[in-house]
Structures
1.
Amino acid sequence: MRYALARESGELVMQVGRNHPMVWNTRAEIDKWISDHLELLGGLDWRVGYFFKAKFDRESLKIVYSKNGKEVKFK
């Protein structure tokens, strides 16, 4: 587990029906999930690296490092 999904406030987003956060091991997995997630929610409202918001999502989301919670920067 290298990366996790968090709300703008920094609170980790938990998987539905589970007590653990949504996590990924590679940036490729993250990019695929973001693409799929945004497609389901009507497309991208805006995105800056790994900080993004879908058009029909109420909240902005970001990808953080799972160990320390720091925001992942786009390379």
Note: The beta strands are 3-7, 23-24, 44-48, 51-54, 61-65.
2.
Amino acid sequence: MGIFGNTFGLPHLIIILVIILLLFGAPKLPGLARSVGQSMKIFRNEVKSDPKKDDETTDSATASETPATKKNEL
């Protein structure tokens, strides 16, 4: 049993790959694969990033701008 159960098999994958080859053409496929790979790498890095780390950076940025410092700037 595959990812999509018994409804999606090897013949379907071959047909999809042939359609992609016809749509994009052979010379454009390496560039397309490269851009998809880079997008997946960026997505994985963003998913793996620590959400607490992101919260600390935004908290420190807002904490440094207290009303007193804003008042002094005016």
Note: The chain has a mean pLDDT of 75.
3.
Amino acid sequence: MTGKEILAKYPITNTKWAYSHLSLTVSNIVYDGYYYCWLNNIVTGLITTDPWYRAFKDYVPISDDDMSTLYHTTVEGNPVLLLMYKKKYV
């Protein structure tokens, strides 16, 4: 499934996340679209969830030196990229 097909079949239920139609290549995997959020909008205590309210099992806080972090998950066995930005700049 492409990123657009995943978005159509499984719409974002966690509105803290948004979908970008841009493609990104990470570790030689091409993601046709990806999901992103701002860290201050998504983390509450120790609970961090993806666009479908599934909890992250491997959440590690973003260090002060990093502006973002990547998470990989799957939907029906298809790779999905989640990009979490540390700060929202206006």
Note: The chain has one domain: 3-85.
